[in-house]
Every structure is written in structure tokens, then in C-alpha cells.
Amino acid sequence: MSDDPVLARMLRVKSGLRAGGSSPHHEVIATYWTRSENALFAFCRDGLLLDPEGVQRFIPFVVIADAGYYNRDMVERAKRMRLGSTPEPLSITLTSGEVIDLPLNVHDDGMPDLLTIAGLIEQRVRIFQAEQRREGCHRKSLN
């Protein structure tokens, strides 16, 4: 396992995430798999890679404005799914206003991966933003 505590947490939670993945242009740390064994997206060091086995699209963490974790609508969606309604995707909002929907698994007990994955994305976004601020401060002090 990695010395990255967020990655370690990602792989401990019950979800469709599995360590690793491949991309010629990005360092993939974990890939999200559906129950039917399709790779939907991957967590990279600096962003999300959508459709890692097909027409890839990279979304840097810096352009994610809302990962859906603190969104009341997402909590309500998770509750509805827990009660047996149709699975709903995780909606991520980018700084451009674009909304990206990520379909996620629902476990046999009815619990969706919705808030789990939203929380992990939120953590990665915050970590990346903090690193960017630290690097910016470091660069300013060198000048």
C-alpha cells in the first residue's frame, strides 16, 4: 500500500475503487469499477480521469468547484437510493459551470457509493488546492 493516507482510506472503504490503473499521461492511483467490470473513472494525483479505458477526459482537481459532498440534494439522493429508488449519478460541478454525472454502484444492502466517492473527491480537491497554495507561497519566497 502507498504512504498516501488518502489513498489508503480510499481503498479501505467499501466502494468500487481498486488500487492502480493505467494511463500514458497521468499517474493513476485508483480506478472506480462498476459491478459489471467497467472502469468509469480513475483518481490521479492531480485530477480525475473519466472513461480511462475509452475516450479519456482529464478533469484537474483545480477546476472542480463542487464535488457534491456538502450538497443537500446529494444527501437526499443517497437517502432515496437507500430506500430502493433508481440509482442516481454523482454530480460534480466544474468552475466553468459544467456538471459531470458519474454513475456509481449501489451495494446489495442498498447503500450507494454516492457520498463515499463525493467525500473522497472532496478530500483530493482540498489536498490539491492546499498543495497549490503551498507551492505558490514557496515560489513567492524564492523571488
Features:
three-stranded antiparallel β-sheet; five-stranded antiparallel β-sheet; 3 helices; PH-domain like; 143 residues; 34% helix; alpha+beta
Textual characterization of the structure:
The N and C termini lie far apart (38 Å). Helices cover 34% and strands 24% of the residues. The protein has one domain (5-142): PH-domain like (Roll), CATH 2.30.29. The longest helix is centred in the last third of the chain and has 29 residues, at 114-142. The strands form two sheets. It has a five-stranded antiparallel beta sheet with strand order 1-2-3-4-5, covered by helices on one side. A three-stranded antiparallel beta sheet has the order 6-7-8. The relative contact order is 0.15. It is an alpha+beta fold and 143 residues long. The protein has helices spanning 5-12, 72-82, 114-142, and strands at residues 17-19, 28-33, 39-44, 47-50, 57-60, 64-66, 90-94, 99-102. The mean pLDDT is 82. The protein is globular, with a radius of gyration of 16 Å. A hairpin with a 2-residue loop joins strand 3 (39-44) and strand 4.
